[in-house]
From TrEMBL:
Entry-linked Pfam families: GerE, Response_reg
Domain HTH luxR-type positions: 140-205
Location of 4-aspartylphosphate modifications: D53
Domain of life, per lineage: Bacteria
Domain Response regulatory, first and last residues per copy: 2-118
GO molecular function: DNA binding
BP term (GO), one: phosphorelay signal transduction system
UniProt protein name: LuxR family transcriptional regulator
Keywords tagged on the record: DNA-binding, Phosphoprotein, Transcription, Transcription regulation
Length: 211
């Protein structure tokens, strides 16, 4: 996979570059020091994934993510930041980030997150998953939604960042069944990935379906 690193701290970029270069299936194609550079380089280099910092000068990671996804929807954005609160997580996902990881993540886990994204899976840091799973201070009223009860259960499990296998185990169904439910969820909710589906669950109070 071809990765673009976007972070305003030189030391962080160097550390990420040093480790990612040791992975046989990863090629770091560029480094951006701010959001403006990240958008420009994403267009020029067409990476598979942009590893995006949240707080950067000139243009922050959320704005940069939104611009990248508007112009290059096939490019995957993984947010890598120090902020684990809902006020940062939700805007990042709404902007189009397919994953949200914190900078205290172990290097091997970060690499696995990149690989998960390439497989079409969502990837959320456990702290981010816990934050999303919390009931909001003013929980939204339950609204009519197009999902079946089983689909709602699958969606609730996705908010925990679980893999298809883990969801299947939690609900005592096969992985093939989980994949079918996830496909139906995407179509019914008109979302593009698991992370956006999880955001829908949070906004509509559906996380309580999780076991």
């Amino acid at each position: 996979m071809r990765v673009l690193i976007a972070d305003d701290h030189h030391v962080v970029r160097r550390g990420l570059l040093f480790f990612l270069k040791t992975q046989k299936d990863i090629e770091v194609v560029g480094e951006a020091a701010n959001g403006v550079e990240a958008v420009e380089m994403a267009g020029e280099l067409q990476p598979d994934i942009v590893l995006m910092d949240l707080v950067m000068p000139e243009m922050d990671g959320i704005q940069a993510t939104r611009k990248i996804k508007e112009s290059y929807p096939d490019i995957i954005v993984l947010m890598l930041t120090s902020f684990s609160d809902r006020d940062h997580i939700l805007p990042a996902i709404e902007a189009g980030a397919a994953g949200y990881q914190l900078k205290d993540i172990e290097p091997d886990e970060l690499v696995e997150s990149l690989r998960s994204l390439m497989r079409g899976e969502n990837t959320l840091h456990p702290k981010a998953s816990s934050e999303l799973a919390k009931a909001p201070e003013d929980p939204p009223p339950h609204v009519l939604h197009p999902l079946t009860p089983r689909e709602a259960e699958v969606l609730a499990e996705l908010t925990k960042g679980k893999s298809n296998r883990e969801v299947a185990s939690a609900l005592f169904v096969t992985e093939k069944t989980v994949k079918t439910h996830i496909s139906n969820i995407f179509i019914k909710l008109e979302v593009q990935d698991r992370t956006q589906a999880a955001l829908y669950a949070v906004k509509h109070g559906l996380t309580e379906y999780a076991n």
